[in-house]
Amino acid sequence: MTGRRRTGRGVDSAATGADGPSGRTGPFVANTLTGAPDLGRSAGFPTMRPSILFLGLFAPFTLGAADAAWPQFRGPGGRATADDAKLPVEWSATANVAWSAEVPGRGWSSPIVVGDRVIVTSALNRGGFKPAQTGIFGNDYVAELKKQGLPDEEVNKRVIARDIEQTAEVEDVSYLVLAFDVRTGKPLWEREVHRGKPFGGRHRKNTYASETPATDGERIYASFGANVGVFCLGLDGTVQWRRSWEPQSIYLDFGTAASPVVHGGRVYVQRDSEGESFLAALDAKTGEPVWTTARTELAAKNKSGWATPFVWETPARTEIVTIGKGLVVSYGLDGRELWRLRGMTQATPSPTAGAGLLFVGSGSQGENNRPLYAIKPGASGDITPAQGETSGPFVAWFQPRGTPYTGSPLFYKDRLYSLNDNGMLQVFDAATGREIYKERVGGTGNTFSSSPIASAGRVYALNENGTTIVFAAGDEYAQLGKNVLGEMSLATPAVAPGGGGLLVRTQTKLFRIAAAGP
Fold it and tell me: Per-residue DSSP letters for 122-189?
C-alpha cells in the first residue's frame, strides 16, 4: 500500500453551525452534532422568499421507497440512467413544466431525491459573487495578452481578475442545504450549516456549492469541499454531525467540486489539493473516521482534482475508484490500494461502469491528452500498459482522445457516450473501444459542463445556456428535441423516480420537467 492510513477521532471543536477556520486545531477537525438542535439561518442573511410556478395539468406519479430515489451525483450507482422515468422529449420554460421554484444563492450541485424531497445545496453571499459566465476558458486570452508584449506578472494579474474570485472579494458565505417537495416544488426547509469567509477562491464558472449531496434514505450528506466540511442532516433538516479538515490550497484557486458517495454505511470523501490529499471513509451514523488513506503519489505539481469517487461492485469485490492528477487509484473497502493506472491529465470526470468493465479517463482543453481506458475486474498492482500498447492483462482497450474535459462518460446500452465541453460527442463500442460515430451535439455554438443522462432509449445533454438537447441512443446521431429554459446551467440533471420527470437546476431556479397528463 502507498501512503498511510489514519484512524481515530481527530480533534473535536465547539458545536456550532457557523464557525470559521480560526477555531480549528490539528490536522483533522471533527465536529460531531449527533442529537444537536435544529440549525436554522443566522441573522444578517436574507430569508428565502419562496416563488413557485405551477404550469398545466400533469399525470400523477408514485414515489417508491427511499432506495429507489436519485441518491447522489449521477443517480443510483453513479450510472446516470433511469429507463423507467418517462421523461418528456420536448419542453420549454412554460410547456411540460410541472413546477419551478426559486433557489437562493448560487450553486452547481445537482439535485438529489430522497422520499418526497428534492435536496440541493447553495452558497449565499450578501455582497454578491463575481458573475458566472458560459463558454470555454482556454489559453486564448493568455496568448492575446502576451501578444501585446505584457510581462508574465501582468498577464497573470489580468487573467486572475477576469477568471478568479479571490477571498478578498467575498464577504462571509452562508452554506445552505434546502429541501423542496418533489410533487409541488414547495420549500420544506432550509438550513445554514456553516457561515464564514472561504479559505480559498474559486473560478467564476465554479461555485462554493458545487458538490452534489448524497443520501442513504435515512440521512443526507452535504459536502462543501473538505475546506468547509461534510454535514449530515436528518430528512427533516436537523444537523446530526459534521466533519471537517484543515484547509488546503487548490490549484489556481479554482475551488472544489468532488462529491461524497455513500455505500455500506460509510461516506467516502476524496480530497485532492496542493497540500494534503486523501480518501476518507466516515461512519455514516456518527461521522467518525473509519480510515483515511493519504494520496501521496499524485503528480508532483498541480495535484488538485475535482473528480467524484466511484463505487465499483463486481462479483469478486467492491472497490472505491478514484481519478487524480496523473493516475487512477482503486482502493478496497479497508482503504488499501488494489491497483493503479498512470497517464491521467486533469482530474475532473468521474468513472462509470457497464458490460463488466470500468471506464476511467481524464480530460484537458482541446482534443489532445484525453485518455480513456476500459478496465477489467480483478486488477492488482500497476496495470499501466507498456509504451505504445493499447491494452494489457487488465486493460481491455485504450483511446488517447476519448474523455470529456469536465463532464463524465455515460455507459448506456453497450455504448459509451463521451460529450466534450466543446459539444463534440464521441460514441464508442463499450466492449472494444471502437469509435462508432462522432458528432457535434445541437450544432455549433454549444458548450457543456454537465454530464449527460439516459432514459428509455434517449440521451439528455444539458448545455451551459440551459438548453437540453435530446438525441436517440444508437449507432448514429438523431436529434429528437432541443428544449430551451433560457438560463445558464452547469449542473447535471437528476430524475424524480416513479415517473416524476426530470429535475433541472439553472442559475436561480429548480425545474421539474414532466409530460402533461391527459
Answer: EEE-TT--PPP--S---SHHHHHHHHTT--HHHHHHHHHHHHEE-GGG--PEEEEEEEEETTT--EEE
* CA–CA dist 279, 261 (Å, integer): 11
pLDDT digits (tens, 9 = 90+) for 44-91: 333 444 455 555 445 555 544 344 489 999 999 999 999 988 899 999
What is the spatial distance between Cα 413 and Cα 420, in angstroms, rounded to a whole number? 20
Q: Which residue has the cell 452547481?
A: 108
- pLDDT tens digits along 147-171: 889 998 888 888 888 888 888 888 8
Helix, strand, coil proportions of the chain in percent (round to 5)?
5, 40, 55
Query: Residue 204 is placed in which grid cell?
Result: 467564476
The beta-strand segments (E) located in 246-351 are 261-263, 266-271, 278-283, 289-294, 310-313, 318-324, 327-331, 337-342
Q: Are 86 and 98 in contact (CB under 8 A)?
A: no
Q: Please list, in sequence order, all residues whose beta carbon lies within 8 angstroms of the beta carbon of residue 152, skipping any fewer than 6 positions away.
A: none
- Please, which residues bridge with residue 268 across strands? 261, 281
Yes or no: say if 213 and 223 are a contact pair by the CB < 8 Å rule: yes
3-state secondary structure at position 213: coil
Contact at 8 Å (CB) between 495 and 509? no
Q: Which fold has domain 5-513?
A: Methylamine Dehydrogenase; Chain H (2.130.10)
Contact by Cβ (8 Å): 440, 426: no
Report the alpha-carbon distance of residue 250 to residue 258 in Å, rounded.
Answer: 12
CB 370 within 8 A of CB 345: yes
Q: What is the pTM of this model?
A: 0.88
Helix (H, G, I), strand (E, B) or coil at 164: strand
CA–CA dist 391, 166 (Å, integer):
44
User: Which grid coordinates belong to 110?
Assistant: 445537482
Q: What single-letter DSSP state applies at residue 324? A: E
